[in-house]
Design a protein that fits this description.
Layout (H helix, E strand, L loop, with lengths): L8 E6 L6 H13 L4 E6 L14 H12 L5 E3 L2 H4 L6 H6 L7 E5 H5 L7 H7 L1 E5 L6 H8 L4 E2 L9 H9 L10 H10 L11
Parallel strand pairs: 1-2, 1-4, 2-3, 4-5, 5-6
Helix pairs in contact: 2-9
């Protein structure tokens, strides 16, 4: 008698303003190192932790996320947070999933802030936490926040952020090879990031 194996899912959430090569490398690393079947890229609808800066409208961030993932069979763009009204909380995304314990993929800086998240204890309970090292964030601070059971990813030390990419775009500098080519074309077509960025991500 046959049976169907549960799909092993990784969730990479973020503002994706814009999605860039570090997101791709981290997702690929998690997929291979943790034996996942797929990684969902889940752009935040209204990212409450970034309320201090202007965030590009969700329709653009969603389109860029689709452009980043559409031709990679084991990556998937998921719009559940874009469709949700009000502030975007990770626990709502996890609660809305079918039975199973997905892997929540975080950068070390985000993982160190996890205790400040809405219903953080439930997030840690409902998901395995995989963390990619980030310059400037020590492992000890992550493990104090999340626990020593965190699964560390072996990721090349790439220091790139959406803030840096928005700054480059505003100054007319090239984004080629820093984002996927369809994303670079989308940014140009829609005139995104023509003004200097605010905040960090």
């Amino acid at each position: 008698m046959g049976y169907s194996r549960r799909v092993r899912i990784g969730i990479l959430g973020g503002t994706f303003d814009p999605p860039h090569i570090v997101h791709m490398v981290v997702a690929e690393s998690a997929l291979l190192q943790l034996d996942l079947d797929t990684v969902w890229f889940v752009p935040a609808g209204f990212p409450w932790q970034k309320s201090g800066r202007s965030v590009t409208p969700a329709r653009h961030r969603w389109a860029m996320t689709v452009a980043t993932t559409s031709d990679i069979p084991y990556f998937e763009a998921d719009d559940r947070e874009i469709r949700r009204s009000g502030s975007t909380y990770t626990i709502d995304t996890l609660s809305g999933m079918e039975a199973g314990r997905p892997v929540l993929i975080l950068g070390a800086d985000a993982a160190a802030r996890l205790p400040s998240w809405h219903r953080a204890d439930e997030v840690i309970e409902r998901a395995r936490i995989a963390v990619a090292p980030r310059p400037g964030t020590e492992r000890d601070s992550v493990e104090r926040a999340v626990g020593t059971h965190v699964e560390w990813l072996d990721v090349p030390p790439l220091d790139l952020s959406g803030t840096e990419l928005r700054r480059r775009a505003a100054e007319g500098l090239s984004l080629r090879f820093l984002v996927r080519e369809p994303v670079r074309e989308y940014i140009g077509l829609h005139g995104l990031y023509r003004t200097p960025p605010g905040g960090t991500d």
